[in-house]
Amino acid sequence: MSELSVRDFYDELAHDYHLMFRDWDASMAYQAEVLGELVRQSLGAGPHTVLDCSCGIGTQAIGLALAGHQVVGSDLSPVAAARAAAEAAARGSRLPAAAADMRQLPFREKSFDVVLCADNSLPHLLSGQDLRAALLGMRRVLRDDGLLMITVRAYDEARRTRRTATPPQVSETCDGQVITFQLWHWHEDGERYDLEHFQLIPAENTWHVRVRRSTYWALTTSQLTEFVAEAGFTNITWHSPASSGYYQPVLTAQRVPSAQ
């Protein structure tokens, strides 16, 4: 992963990220309900201490905080992290948020009940070395038997079909419809791809076209399962959108207790 390029991608997107949602606050509530239920099934009702280590502008973190959990956010993008904290405050909640690389989490060992890495953030890590560093760091800050939650795209099918684009998403704003879509350019290895993220934003009888670029590793379920197990997690379970109600596949796993 090129830290600078990924950070730039999200620094630039932070102002417009909410425009991808038809109703951002409704999405916060829906995602918190689904993810909160997965937490409850593993750890009980709570409230729980949660680290959202790819919090972005706060979609999952704010929803979980409003649901009563004690949430801390971190993100590679300082612009996104700052907006997450501000958006939480605007909704009467508190979300401490900091700029931090998920490969070098600046938190104490065993300080969280849950570590969340959502919105297909982990596949920005393009090598096994970086992926291991991130997962080991997530394990380090989890308490014994603490819960790891990762949400990613359904890459098994995407790898088979070599998809080249996503369907346009249309959301309503006070100024009109915002159109968002992606183009995918696959690398020769068949596993990684360069993404072009397009937003068409209405402005006085014309469109502002915003294009951001980044690179992803299209990790299959078996690949990610293997990395998570190698990092010291057990009870690894995949929850499909059909079973969980979430918009992406969700991997849950628990930290193996440290040897006494």
Automatic annotation (TrEMBL):
Pfam families: Methyltransf_25 (PF13649)
Methyltransferase domain segment(s): 50-146
Domain of life: Bacteria
GO molecular function: methyltransferase activity
Cited InterPro entries: Methyltransf_25 (IPR041698), SAM-dependent_MTases_sf (IPR029063)
SUPFAM superfamilies: S-adenosyl-L-methionine-dependent methyltransferases
PANTHER family linked to this entry: 2-METHOXY-6-POLYPRENYL-1,4-BENZOQUINOL METHYLASE, MITOCHONDRIAL, METHYLTRANSFERASE
Protein name: Methyltransferase domain-containing protein
Species in which this protein is naturally found: Streptomyces aurantiogriseus
